[in-house]
Design a protein that fits this description.
The protein is of the alpha/beta class. The chain has nine helices and eleven strands. Helix 8 packs parallel to helix 9.
Length: 272
């Protein structure tokens, strides 16, 4: 399985880094004036247990400042305190210019990777055999970093944005008048290659979504004890009426058992 996750990143992440550096120093660098251009080294220490994530963003911060980074651990490593993780080398002024931006990115991304993995391990320990997926509940302007952290933590990023997949929630359905009308309208604009996910509140609505041609059904606000049985009913119904259903989702509950549904959504990893 490929693990070169930096290859996922679009080239525009470098522009984001430039903007974050500019945000932190939009005018005079007073501290930089004090310390000057002498060559120096800075040591990155891991002070709490977790998974290392965000390496390409950290690297790009210092690349733009003409510094180099030597990593002692590869991305995805489990870090135990206190360990030396990396060494940054370059002009002391530029090391300090990038320090806070780089640390903010790395800490946030590593925290999300760690929490994602903790949630996944908890689910698997309860007998769950499906996927843990993220949501769009991310920090504006920082989604790329946060979704990247989820991937490093072993979770499915789910949809990246409103254009990645069509998700029809209760507001879409109420506005359109019915699940059938909403799915039909979505299919018209999304075409055959875009999956449609429909959020439902009960089994009857789930069956309507299947009949309308939804690819994925999300069981929203179901009681924990009803999720497995509900997902099984929906999939059996889809099979009986000859509809192809990619899977069932649910919002993450504390009580999870069994292999139904195929995926669970959690916004918790990015809301810290």
């Amino acid at each position: 399985m490929p693990t070169d996750f930096p290859h996922l990143l679009p080239n525009n992440y470098k522009r984001f880094i430039s903007e974050w550096l500019e945000e932190d120093c939009p005018s005079f660098d007073y501290g930089g004036f004090v310390v000057g251009e002498a060559f120096s080294e800075a040591y990155l220490l891991g002070k709490s247990e977790g998974y290392l994530a965000g390496v390409p963003f950290f690297d790009e911060v210092f690349r733009q400042l003409d510094c180099t980074v030597e990593w002692k651990y590869p991305e995805g490593s489990k870090i135990k305190p206190i360990e030396q993780i990396a060494i940054v080398r370059g002009p002391v002024r530029k090391i300090l210019l990038g320090e806070r931006v780089a640390l903010n990115i790395l800490a946030r991304c590593s925290g999300i990777a760690t929490k994602s993995n903790d949630l996944l391990v908890s689910l698997l320990s309860q007998g769950y055999e499906g996927i843990l997926a993220g949501t769009r509940k991310t920090t504006p302007g920082f989604r790329l970093v946060e979704k990247y952290g989820m991937i490093i933590g072993g979770c499915d990023p789910h949809r990246q944005d409103l254009s990645t997949m069509i998700m029809l929630k209760d507001n879409h359905i109420w506005s359109r008048g019915s699940i059938t009308a909403a799915v039909s309208s979505a299919r018209l604009c999304g075409g055959f290659s875009t999956k449609i996910e429909v959020e439902v509140l009960d089994i009857e609505s789930a069956k309507q979504a299947v009949d309308a041609g939804a690819d994925i059904v999300m069981l929203d606000n179901f009681k924990p004890e009803d999720v497995a049985g509900g997902a099984k009913q929906v999939k059996e119904y889809a099979k009986a009426v000859g509809k192809r259903l990619a899977g069932c989702l649910e919002n993450l509950n504390d009580k999870t058992t069994g292999s139904f549904p195929e995926a669970r959504l959690s916004g918790g990893a990015t809301q810290m």
